[in-house]
Amino acid sequence: MRWKRFVLSLVCGAGFAVLSGSPALAERPDVVIDPGGVAPAALKSIVAAVESITRLAEDQDAGEVSRLRRRAYDATLSALQTQGYFEPTVTLEVTEDIGGEAWDIIIEPGERTKVGQVDITFQGQITDAAFAPRTEALRAGWSLKPDDLFINAHWSDAKTDLLDNVNRKDFYFARYALTQAVVHPDQARADLTLQVDSGPRVTLGPMVTEGLVRVPSSLIERYVRYAPGDPYDQDLLDDWQQALQSTTFFRGAFVTLDSAPAVRQNQPDGSVALPVHVRVSEAAARRAVGSLGADSDNGIRLEGLYRQNVVMGLPVALETGASIDSNIQRAFFDIHLPPTLSGYKDSFGLLAEHSDIEGLDNRRYGAGWTRRQERKGAGDSRVEYETLWTLVVAHDRTRISGAPGFKVPTAIGTWQWLRRDVNDKYDPREGYLLDFGLGAGVTLDTGQPFYRSSLRAQHWWSIGSRDVLTVRGEVGKMWSKTDRVPTTFGYRTGGSRSIRGYKYQSIGINTGDAVVGAPTLAVASIEYTHYVTEQIGVNFFIDAGDAAETFRGMDIALGYGMGVGMRTPAGPFFIDLAYGQRDKRLRLHFSLGIAF
Q1: Same domain for 86 and 118?
Q2: Buried b (16+ CB within 10 A) or exposed e, 339-378
Q3: Global pTM?
Q4: Cβ neighbours of residue 268 closer than 8 Å, sequence gap 6 or more
Q5: Tens of pLDDT along 301-341?
Q6: Which domain, by its residues, includes 159?
Q7: Which residues are CB-contacts of 98 (< 8 A; sequence separation ≥ 6)?
Q8: How buried is 114 (Cβ within 10 angstroms: 0-12 exposed, 13-18 middle, 19+ buried)?
Q9: How many Å apart are CA 565 and CA 535, to the nearest integer?
Q10: Where does a domain end: 232, 251, 282?
């Protein structure tokens, strides 16, 4: 038995330093615990309690050693009681060996206490007949049921949950008039008594705002919608606060009730109206940002963005900017409306864009509307959803090197849905992403329709503590009765973000001296990354795919190689060396961005 207790002490953290009987100690003595069958959670509590005392044992005199032994004994009893053992037998034996003093703590836990009777009563306005269904639901929802183990943490959580369920709606001033647990150790039973004083029913009074300087009050009223006299509901206040914080107009927003006695309004029916206090901190009126980047696909890239909150006294945001690199030059002007109560973000804007890639030169001028919604999954889920709707009227002038070009005015609508479930949105190492899109358009001069659909998926598997396996794939299909399709609707691939080992968008349909968009796309990739440090990873990859007239007619282009990725204070840096089997060439792909 002694041997078994010693082995258990090693598993449970024996070797704790403890007092010896000598006048002063240079080291803490050992502690050996014989748990006697107590539950693992109880043993963990005991170990933690005794260890906190043994830390005090070094260099103490004999009197203090004796007091610490008693404290260790009492701490063991207390830890057992928090786990439902109210009639244990605990023996603390002191022994001497060559290493000094040792404690043997021997536990006979006895029967574990369970919940007996539960008596929940209410007082205050919640006892009105109108709230009878609610009080019954509160009793039914009590989490610590008869015959459940009576554990201190569960008792505390159950009390908190009950009171929270009362005072989150209607009864802002709810409190406990009495909470009592009567333990009968000889019967291993705990009878529980709770009395909740709800206080008066609370309704919403007038709204008071604080912190508005430039932003008009109409923006607050857009989200905080109620009529004085509506019942208090904390979930509603939380939703209003979240809606205000989701806008770009505020750095912070808080929506609370003002319960100061001076502002309370007593009502004839005994209820109390409290003002709704909205306190905000406005975001910067104007913001200008820029970025400088370089990558193997587009060369040096320069971007600039200007944003202004509140335009001509209206609660809208103006955003304009431009970007330029060797392949694409773009300028835009957008007006962003405040998010709706459902979380939809609408914007309207103008766009001018020029691109010249692989002999396909396109100039586009357009105006459009965009609606975006971002939302979290239910509960504490890490799942995120993004949905995007766009409607664009545009004019494209397309020139094809070595072949006839065309001009086409179009109206295009698209819908895109994304589901993300990853451990880190910006540096995923475990989880997956799924992206599905649909699009439809029509030529405005001839009325000819065209359509497309696409599916993209990526999955990350964490292997051990340092390695990650990534698999991604993408397929797309376009249908059209006209050759005059905007370049954004056709499929081209190749480059650092698709099939490495090939030039950017160099895989498609060869027309004249150019590469134009194809009706079908299929791309797949597998990559293995070993992280040398938390910031630096070495990866090995194989990419494959094609963009062609049909899926059957595809000639799969294969690219494989290795690379390095690192996260620096200036921004992420990626570099890959890949061999393109179709072109029989070795290419270097890299990307670096710096914000300023």
Answers
A1: no
A2: beeeeebebebebebbbbbbbbbbbbebebebbbbeeeee
A3: 0.76
A4: none
A5: 999 999 999 999 999 999 999 999 999 999 999 999 999 88
A6: 114-197
A7: none
A8: middle
A9: 8
A10: 282
